[in-house]
Amino acid sequence: MSRTVEKTELSDQDLLRYSRQIMLPQIDLSGQQKLLASRVVLFGVGGLGSTVAMYLVTSGVGRITLVDPDRVDLSNLQRQVVFLSDDIGCEKVSAARQRLTAMNQQVEVRTINSVLSGARLRQVASEADLVVDATDNFSARYAINRACVETHTPLIVGAAIRFEGQVTVFTMKSQSACYGCLYPDQGDLEESCAQTGILGSVAGLVGCLQATEAIKLLLNHGKILSNKILLIDALNMEWHSVRINRDPKCAVCANSKGHA
Ligand SMILES: [Zn+2]
């Protein structure tokens, strides 16, 4: 495992492509080089993941690994904006890679067309600077959280349903809570958007917030939603954040090395 940030030289094309964010003093040339050397793993290329992937790729995050076992369905297109009608029936990760590479050839897009578990999941998490969880079910979230706890990989979790969204960040450093502290494992009780519906733009909103937190975390700038959950009620446009305390009896992180 190597998380050393290497310097990537910026070409004239890079300077132009990324000029509007290089102008930001928090990013500057060194931040752009850092982004180009960063590696992110994205679980779930759905409504949230489409937006996360597009913004990370257009921002110049150097390598993104897409993990999703599904194929594109007609009912996905209302919110999974990385896909086109012609992608129906194709593997999501392959269709997304094609689109993302067309957006920015400089970014390396890797794909895993399966559900990961166990050692393979841990390995994929350990090779990333951070993990973005944009899946839509508790069992995936618990497995991803556990792998991030065990490998001390920062994790950004998003969820959206109806007009509602949630975003939270677990740095997995000392005193960091984890997803298990927030929602102790009670089986797969999560409602899915297939059952209850979702406004596409709300999924995109949550994805934008995840991408923004990812870039801030990669660059170590600003205040992130660490040990906090942001709750969004888009119907009434009310946002508030709630503190999450680390649970000393958490079944996942209580005994984790580095969390003592
Ligand atoms: Zn925990």
Describe this structure in words.
It is built from ten helices and eight strands. With 260 residues, it is an alpha/beta fold. It has a single domain (31-243), classed as NAD(P)-binding Rossmann-like Domain (Rossmann fold). Strands 3-2-1-4-5-6-7-8 form an eight-stranded mixed sheet, with helices on both faces. Strand 1 (39-43), helix 4 and strand 2 form a beta-alpha-beta unit. The structure holds zinc ion. Residues 177-178, 180-181, 247, 250, 252-253 line the site of zinc ion.
List the topology elements.
Elements: H1 12-17, H2 19-22, H3 28-36, E1 39-43, H4 47-59, E2 63-67, H5 92-103, E3 108-112, H6 118-126, E4 130-133, H7 138-151, E5 155-161, E6 164-170, H8 179-182, H9 193-196, H10 200-219, E7 228-233, E8 238-243
Parallel strand pairs: 1-2, 1-4, 2-3, 4-5
Antiparallel strand pairs: 5-6, 6-7, 7-8
Helix pairs in contact: 4-5, 4-10, 6-7
The structure holds zinc ion.
Zinc ion binds next to α8.
Evaluate the radius of gyration. 18 Å
The proportion of residues forming helix, as a percent range, comes to: 25-40%
CATH second-level architecture: 3-Layer(aba) Sandwich
Q: Give the strand order of the largest sheet, numbering strands 1, 2, ... along the chain.
A: 3-2-1-4-5-6-7-8
What's the overall average pLDDT, rounded? 93
Q: What is the general shape?
A: globular
Low-confidence stretches: none
- CATH topology: the name is Rossmann fold
CATH class label: Alpha Beta
What is the name of the CATH superfamily?
Answer: NAD(P)-binding Rossmann-like Domain
Q: List the ions, cofactors and other small molecules found in this model.
A: zinc ion
Determine the number of helices (DSSP H or I, runs of at least 4 residues): 10
Structural class: alpha/beta
List the secondary-structure elements in sequence, H or E: HHHEHEHEHEHEEHHHEE
N→C terminal distance: 22 Å
